[in-house]
Write a structure and sequence with these properties.
Elements (H helix, E strand, L loop, with lengths): L4 E6 L2 H15 L4 E6 L3 H16 L6 E8 L5 H14 L15 E6 L4 H5 L2 H7 L23 H11 L9 H8 L11 H16 L2
Parallel strand pairs: 1-2, 1-3, 3-4
Length: about 210
């Protein structure tokens, strides 16, 4: 059965903007989607159980749900288990972490934040901000964007400020709109980004 529509639940506007650029590249024009933005991570977590119970009677065979959260400082395994538990309590099946089991819901984490996905695609960063060094990804600190210490948003802000961008502070919505259109689906050094893309692709393939 072919998926026809996807509901995407995100914690804040910058992720919603990023999804507006990334999802069409993954889904093409054969699937509609709607991004639902919450007032922060805790708001999403608090409202997710009831939202999923509502979706449980709606998804059927042609609709799916994607939940995306920043890991921040949480234990990624515990947070993922919490999200999967919410789906199970609502009577909905989840796509496995490895993408080996089809389901109605896919839960994915940006580790530790959305900005790690940008740091994982230096070419996209440089397309938006040409003064960013082409050697950025070769620096030890940034070889694994998901493992950047001290916060990926703070690290990216320093990179951009050093290159004379975002001098008044990181403007996350502008950043998403500047970098998002240039991001490619394959080759990103962020493993959490790769898992997001692979999971959405598997979500689509598993429905066929």
């Amino acid at each position: 059965m072919t998926v026809e529509h996807i509901e995407v639940l995100v914690e804040e506007q910058s992720m919603a903007r990023a999804m507006g650029h990334l999802l069409p590249a993954i889904l093409g024009d054969r699937v509609t989607y709607e991004v639902r933005t919450f007032n922060g991570k805790q708001s999403l977590l608090r409202k997710l159980p009831s939202r999923l119970r509502g979706y449980a009677n709606w998804v059927g065979e042609t609709k799916r749900v994607i939940v995306i959260l920043d890991r921040d400082g949480d234990d990624c395994v515990e947070l993922k288990e919490k999200l999967d538990g919410f789906a199970a309590e609502a009577g909905m099946s989840t796509v496995s972490v490895t993408g080996s089991r089809p389901g109605q819901v896919i839960n994915r984490l940006a580790i530790e934040e959305l900005e790690a996905w940008y740091l994982g695609d230096v070419a996209a960063l440089r397309a938006a901000y040409p003064r960013v060094p082409s050697s950025l990804g070769e620096r030890a600190k940034f070889r694994d964007p998901d493992a950047v210490k001290g916060g990926t948003a703070e690290a990216l802000e320093r990179v951009l400020k050093d290159a004379k961008y975002h001098q008044a502070g990181l403007e996350k919505l502008a950043l998403a709109d500047a970098v998002g259109p240039h991001m490619t689906l394959d080759g990103n050094r962020s493993r959490s980004f790769q898992k997001f893309v692979d999971g959405v692709r598997f979500l689509m393939d598993g429905a066929r």
